[in-house]
Amino acid sequence: MNTPHTSMTIGAVARRVGVAIDTIRYYEREGLLPEPLRRASGYRSYDEGAVRQLRFIRRAKDLGFTLEEIRDLLSLSADRQRGVKAVKKRAEERLAAIDERIAELTRVRDGLEQLIEACPGHGSPDQCPILKALTDAEDEA
């Protein structure tokens, strides 16, 4: 069984978390993951804390948080006084941004669906409603 002091290579951690080795190195450079201890051989040595933190980062990314927002969440997770309230606020902000993006994508989808329905799929390109809408949109820009 792994203890908090279990030493793992970067490859073992990458496999356990399901990320690339280069991703772990990137997170270290970005300050999202602390620099690991080094073995006498110079190889990185990770513990269970690194695995937990990488899973946190990966799950936060899956929920749409940016790396800067994840950095903020990691910092807040250590704040015993205000952390939970602030984390909830960040999650609410992320949800609002996702809802806004869904509404935008729904508008785009509906518009594209209307264009597809209006297009007969044959005839002259200058009569194609899809091409006409794209051309008219460029003139408005």
Automatic annotation (TrEMBL):
InterPro entries: DNA-bd_dom_put_sf, MerR-type_HTH_dom, MerR_fam. Keywords: Coiled coil, DNA-binding. GO terms for molecular function: DNA binding; DNA-binding transcription factor activity. Residues 7-76 form the HTH merR-type domain. It comes from the Bacteria. The keyword Transmembrane helix does not apply. Residues 88-115 form a coiled coil. The keyword Transit peptide does not apply. It holds the Pfam family MerR_1. Gene3D superfamilies: 1.10.1660.10. This is MerR family transcriptional regulator. It comes from Dyella japonica A8.
